[in-house]
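Q: I have 655 residues here and want to know how they pack in 3D. Can you give me a structure?
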Amino acid sequence: MGQYTQEGAITSWQKLCPLAEGIGYAGQLILFYSCMCYIVILAWALLYLCFSFSSKLPWANCDNVWNTENCVEISGNNKTYNWTEQSNSTSPAVEFWERRVLAISAGIEEVGSVRWEILLCLVAVWVACYFCVWKGVKSTGKVVYFTATFPYVMLLVLLIRGLTLPGALQGVTYYLYPEPSKLLDPQVWMEAVSQVFFSFSVGVGTLTVLGSYNPYNNNCYKDCVWLCVLNSCTSMVAGFAVFSMLGFMAHEQNVPIEMVAESGPGLAFIAYPQAVAMMPFPQLWAVCFFVMIILLGLDTQFVMMEVVMTSVTDLVPSVLRRSGGRRELCLLLYCLLCFSAGVLMVTEGGMYVFQIFDYYACNGTCLLFLAVFLSLAMGWVFGTERLYDIVEDMTGVRPSPLFRMCWKYLTPIVSLVSFICSLVEYQPLTFNRWYVYPGWVYVLGWMMSFSSILLIPGVALFRLMTGKDGLRWRHGVEPLTYNRTYVCPGWVHVLGWMMAFLSILMAPVVALFLLGIGKGNLKQTQSQLQEMTSQEEVNATFPYVMLLVLLIRGLTLPGVLQGVTYYLYPEPSKLLEPQMAFVGSMVKYEPLTYNRMYMSPGWMMAFLSILMAPVVALFLLGTRKENPKQVSVLAIRKDMCRDRINHLNKVWQQM
């Protein structure tokens, strides 16, 4: 998409499928959230790197002022300590992370003071990112030559060192040997899908922007294959480096490897530093590890910033591409805005805020929703044949037929199923499995999630109402007015269109009708209509015959009088219950249960169906080419509108 259009993540949609432009905006909003929170990880890593030059690693012992009486040193000389039975004991690495680095408060309500050491690291990282990105891809490309290759050297060093440690075989065996029962757990597949989406930067426009800098005839087909191979191989090699260290830790503590395995920040700032502290020359390996983490993180941060800046610059090229440092000034404002939000995450309660961004604003659910509509827009609206022709024109190679199946069927179905599963399997956010966030945090988190999701139907609605190629100009429908003088405000038009699309939601037959007229089949032949009419007569009368047979048979059965009496004789007290009415059923709503014991998570599925149908209808409505028959049937003549309005005015005055 990027190489063909030579545009950013937003403007490329304007050339390919304008109604799906909201996908580009949603992707940039997710990257904006990611820039706020991801760089905080680099600030933590930079602080750890500074501590790594100490004569004695501060997370290696319990002799520090921040350690508690529950702290127990982990070393090869302490194998007699029974870790499996001491639930209250903590390691020096955990206490250094929670009490020294984060100084974490009791909850999100207690924001506390700013951790100045982390704040200074955050400033240093932002300054480095700004000066590496401020000249665009020319400056970023030169820096990436070092930041993208040197981590592989560090990874190779850590891999060789890890494989030579005692217990490494135990960790590698745990890494490679699967648990077949886990394959039946949907959460495992959800984590795998999320990892693939994040690892390949799918859906947020990153690859689109990077591809826009390629020459038109670049072999992007080969680039995609190499990207997948290198990315997967890197992940596999990194797994060996990590699990060999975890096996060493399990061997030293004489515990199962499950007890030392961590994920997320716990792996980078607790488990791995703890393993490094148990090795000879720990400072050397700590420096290698955190240098690798910082360089890998800078790569990711560079790309996210460059993607957002390129997309914004392509939106207003006449403003930001002028000489005078306008792009640099815009980048500075963007960095200051993200830095301001990051300050909140380096307070004593900042870890709670960081988790909210990571769990809701940048989660895999949002990416899966974007992937569904991205594949639908390009595979069905833009068309796979056109995609094949474009790739062949750019590269001289026609893609495999497998891609047609992926673009049209496999990717939308897998993304949609994963999206639904992520909602059904949703678990409220907690911290360290013991702290439960207050209710307003969950509301805020879902608002952040829907802020990107709702951009897709929102931009499509805006396009339909205001675009020159939108629905109302194409069908001859003008904005609503009263007596040709009063023009309704914009929110009235939005409300009206929402009511219109509600009818589409309630009547799926309309969607089928739109599919038919999109191909020019508005008027069917007389023979087809007659055949449909005769079939409908049979379908409408036969159930009455069956009902009559069942009624006669039922009235001849013993005990029928008891059933008829129960059916006809009312219970007056029931008429006073609000549950008997529809409105009352909403007021007196009770969650769905099975046998009054099992409570099912159904609201997510209900809202999903409400959200999905109008958006799909928007795609069907807004992306069809203009059809003369459709216009002739749906266009409203102005003189008929005037007559109707005058008639309604007279009736209103009489009333």
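Q: Anything worth noting?
A: The radius of gyration is 31 Å. Strands lie at 430-431, 435-436, 481-482, 486-487, 593-594, 598-599.
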